[in-house]
Specification:
The complex is a heterodimer of chains A (about 290) and B (about 375). Chain A has a domain of about 170 residues: MetI-like (MetI-like fold). In chain A, helix 1 packs across helix 12, helix 2 packs across helix 12 and helix 7 packs across helix 9. Chain A is mostly helical and about 290 residues long. Chain A is globular. Chain A is built from 12 helices and no strands. Chain B has about 375 residues and is of the alpha+beta class. Chain B is about 25% helix and about 30% strand. Chain B is elongated. The chains are: A mainly alpha (about 290), B alpha+beta (about 375). At the A-B interface, helix 8 and helix 9 of A face helix 3 and helix 6 of B.
């Protein structure tokens, strides 16, 4: 059954509205032409032109050369690691970021301001610094790595290391997108659920989660997108072994170092396509979740 | 086990007050009983030794100014607040520290607190569908109950809408139906008409009375609007500073206020500051019987319609005259600068009542309390 759109009851448009031009609508708030014009200009200069340059460069290759560069076994493994680890990291952040946001919004505790500041650190820190610190910490000789090494658990210089770095850089996205939504969540809705006999678990599952789902998906998408594009922090802790712990952005960088910009572009185009599709999918999910609120 | 709708409907109170009791409940038995409740908020006491009985099937109003503790009392009954001292009893069972979820009360919030992501029908069904599997009616029974409640609130056919697609008054009624769906032992409403405009308020007041009568469940509602309380409720409890000043039927409250606060808060009585001596209240040349009031400073509360023009009495200066149907309203100031509101039958000495005119009035009724 299809859920009714929230505004299904909107009145029918005035007949003359149908004949109006596609873009211009009379509005009491002017500025449409200015804002849209500027937006398209900036978007073209900053995003579209560089992106199309990559696509054009790759388009100049023969299909065989493109396939050889973009779909080599090594490249395929790099995509798999990049997208897989990014997805996992975004999931982990989705869970712990949500808990962090909840704690920050709902409770006051000593050191809350400090925790609040720490959450933002991955935003501010140069990614290389993050990578080096993580590598030191998780290497078999480091504090955490040294503690785990006797149990035969190795976290640095393998895919686990990639995951750790991606979790680190993605956390604030989920926390910061969920916080305002949680803060606006009216408390009386939870109280209403309680007076209707719902336990805490039912209240969270049936009342709170549906209310924050669109924002959660946004946070997830941002953390995921950031992780896919991450380079600096990962290369220090990943070990960068082909077929094992080599991420796609690193592969691109290596192709560039060997002056094979065509191969680099080919890999980039694949990443671009996959990332775009995934974000489109998440946006679709979000629109679906939002329609239900 | 087949789900018996008839049985559930009567348990819900839609057909009879309660089937937990044999026959009609005796009048002296309270559905909800509150004993000696005390609750301290940071600085001021929100509830100061409050005791009250809610009779089965009655519609009780908690009336008071903001900060009087009326909402705190309501929330304590619901289990959304817990008292520092005192007891809350439901049918003589102590529930003082039971959770809100365990009490089975129906609570209607000021802003309705509907679940925005659920349809109207899902909202109403919520209380039934979150029950544990063994207590949960089957889907058909829930649907039937929802249909029944939609009919009760006269919103049949809107079950598939979302709350955002409803008007304020419709949301209010959905919140009411949602609260009634769980067959509450008591229905609690926090400022039920606070967020609505005047016209909708009036019609919803009648609506609430009708739904209350149909459901037969004991109902307590909080309001700061005395007109609303007096018009709607069987009994009104007037609260002030965390204490109950008086609990009585509306006409008793109006005609026999127990305290100066009630006299001042209920109705639109004028407050006259004078002195009592030998059982008579005097303010200037105005006199009023004040039996049993100790000599000393006293307050008299005189309703606008309890004044009459007279040859002598309290001298007042007319400020403004408004014709309102069958009465003439006069705003005036006495010699001491106190404002007075007087309502006279239309046509009384109309010529004398002009701005700036000085006339005398006497009081033909009113209540006198010692000034504290």
């Amino acid at each position: 059954m299809v859920a009714l759109a929230p505004h299904a009851g909107s009145p029918p448009r005035h007949p003359s509205a149908a004949r109006r031009p596609l873009f211009r609508r009379r509005s009491a708030v002017p500025g449409f032409a200015l804002t849209l014009g500027t937006t398209i200009l900036i978007l073209s200069l900053v995003v579209l032109i560089p992106v199309s340059a990559v696509v054009i460069r790759a388009a100049g290759m023969t299909p065989e050369a493109f396939a050889a560069a973009a779909f080599s076994r090594r490249a395929l493994h790099a995509y798999y690691l990049s997208f897989g680890a990014s997805f996992l990291a975004a999931m982990v952040n989705g869970v712990f970021g949500a808990l962090t946001a909840w704690a920050l919004v709902r409770y006051s505790f000593p050191g809350k301001a400090l925790v609040n500041a720490i959450v933002d650190l991955p935003f501010a820190l140069p990614t290389a610094v993050a990578g080096v610190s993580l590598a030191i910490l998780y290497a078999p000789t480091g504090w955490v790595g040294g503690f785990l090494a006797p149990f035969g658990i190795k976290v640095a210089y393998n895919p686990t290391g990639v995951l750790i770095a991606l979790i680190f850089i993605g956390l604030p996205f989920v926390v910061r997108t969920l916080e305002p939504v949680l803060r606006d969540l009216p408390i009386d809705v939870e109280e209403a659920a309680a007076t209707l006999g719902a336990g805490r678990f039912d209240t969270i599952r049936r009342v709170i989660v549906p209310a924050i789902l669109p924002a959660w998906l946004t946070g997830f998408a941002l953390a995921f997108a950031r992780a896919v594009g991450e380079y600096g922090s990962v290369i220090f802790i990943a070990g960068n072994m082909p077929f094992k712990s080599e991420i796609a952005p690193l592969l691109i960088a290596q192709e560039l170092e060997q002056f094979d910009s065509a191969a680099a572009s080919a890999i980039a185009v694949v990443m671009l396509g996959v990332a775009f599709l995934m974000l489109l999918l998440i946006n679709g999910l979000q629109a679906w979740a939002r329609r239900k609120t | 086990m087949p789900y018996d709708l008839e049985h559930k409907a009567s348990e819900a109170g839609l057909t009879a007050p309660s089937n937990a009791l044999e026959g009609p409940p005796p009048e002296d038995r309270a559905a909800v009983s509150v004993r000696g409740l005390k609750k301290q908020f940071a600085r001021y006491p929100a509830l100061n030794d409050v005791s009250i009985d809610v009779r089965p099937g009655e519609l009780l109003a908690l009336l008071g100014p903001s900060g009087s503790g009326k909402t705190t009392l309501l929330r304590t009954i619901a289990g959304l607040e817990f008292p520092d001292e005192g007891q809350v009893l439901f049918d003589d069972v102590d529930v003082t520290y039971a959770s809100a979820a365990a009490r089975r009360v129906g609570f209607v919030f000021q802003q309705y607190a509907l679940f925005r992501h659920m349809t109207v029908a899902k909202n109403i069904a919520f209380g039934l569908s979150v029950r544990k599997r063994k207590d949960r009616p089957n889907r058909k029974a829930i649907d039937a109950r929802v249909a029944e409640l939609l009919k009760l609130i006269e919103l049949e056919g809107l079950g598939k809408r979302y709350p955002a697609q409803l008007s304020g008054g419709q949301r209010q009624r959905v919140a009411l139906a949602r609260a009634l769906a769980v067959s509450p032992r008591v229905l609690l409403l926090d400022e039920p008409f606070g967020a609505l405009d005047a016209t909708v308020r009036k019609s919803l007041r009648r609506e609430l009375r009708r739904i209350h009568n149909a459901a037969g469940v004991a109902t307590v509602f909080v309001t700061h609007d005395q007109e609303e309380a007096l018009e709607l409720a069987d009994r009104v409890a007037v609260l002030n500073l965390g204490r109950i000043e008086q609990i009585a039927a509306p006409d008793v409250l109006r005609n026999h206020p127990a305290t100066a606060f009630v006299a001042g808060f209920v109705g639109e009585a004028n407050r006259l500051e004078g002195a009592a001596r030998g059982g008579v209240f005097r303010l200037g040349a105005l006199e009023l019987a004040a039996e049993g009031v100790a000599d000393g400073p006293a307050l008299a509360f005189v309703r606008p319609d309890q004044f009459e023009l007279a040859g002598q009495g309290l001298e007042i200066t007319v400020e403004r005259v408004t014709l309102a149907g069958l009465i003439t309203r006069v705003d005036a100031i006495d010699a001491a600068g106190h404002r007075l509101e007087i309502a006279l039958p239309r046509g009384t000495e109309a010529g004398a009542l002009v701005h700036g005119a000085k006339v005398f009035v006497k009081a033909v009724g009113g209540r006198v309390f010692p000034a504290t």
